[in-house]
Amino acid sequence: MAILSDEALVDPLDQALAERETLIKLCMYALDRARSAGVAERLEEGMRAVGVTALRPDGETFDPARHEAGGTVGTGDRALDGVIAETEALGFTDRGRMLRAPVVVVYRLDGGDPHGVVGSRDAAEFRRQSGRGSASGGEASEDGTGFTA
């Protein structure tokens, strides 16, 4: 009598998709920690080849639906108010689906806080006080990548 294992019941497509997701998480983790510009560039190229895009929205207008505010920096230029000054942590999309929002620093007009991002708090303090556990809309990931399925 033959004994069937659970592995025989797994759909090959489901298994391939699960393995792809695992590899994407690993690449995001590695890219976050890459110290070499060459290694980071190669990781981004590989991810882009399979449909995953790294997001660096520097210079764009801050949009809380697409960006996570990690802090602010003052400016006297009204044209820069609400514009992203720099990206603290890359965001990622997979064929247009947000995997992790980028954590950004937003220009704030000196003497005002029109975007609700007060002072120069660090990213962790902002997320804790605003109830945003991670860049994925409040759901913390178990592996620390910010990626939730």
3D structure, described in words:
GO terms for molecular function: adenyl-nucleotide exchange factor activity; protein homodimerization activity; protein-folding chaperone binding. The protein is α+β, with helices and mostly antiparallel strands. It has 2 domains: 12-50; 54-137, no CATH class. The chain has 3 helices and 6 strands. The protein has helices at 12-33, 37-49, 123-130, and strands spanning 52-55, 68-75, 84-89, 91-94, 97-100, 103-109. It has a 3-stranded antiparallel β-sheet. A 3-stranded mixed β-sheet has the order 2-6-3. It is elongated, with a radius of gyration of 19 Å.
Number of helices: 3
The main sheet comes to: 3 strands, antiparallel
Spans with pLDDT under 50 lasting ≥5 residues? 117-142
Helix content: 25-40%
The tally of strands reads 6
CA-based gyration radius: 19 Å
Query: Could you state the order of secondary-structure elements as H and E?
Result: HHEEEEEEH
Number of discrete domains: 2
Form type: elongated
Strand content: 15-25%
Name the structural class: alpha+beta
InterPro entries: GrpE, GrpE_head
Region (Disordered): 118-149
Pfam families: GrpE
Biased composition (Low complexity): 131-149
Explain the layout of strands and helices.
Elements: H1 12-33, H2 37-49, E1 52-55, E2 68-75, E3 84-89, E4 91-94, E5 97-100, E6 103-109, H3 123-130
Helix pairs in contact: 1-2
Record keyword descriptors for this entry:
single chain; 149 residues; alpha+beta; three-stranded antiparallel sheet; three-stranded mixed sheet; 3 helices; 29% helix; 22% strand; elongated
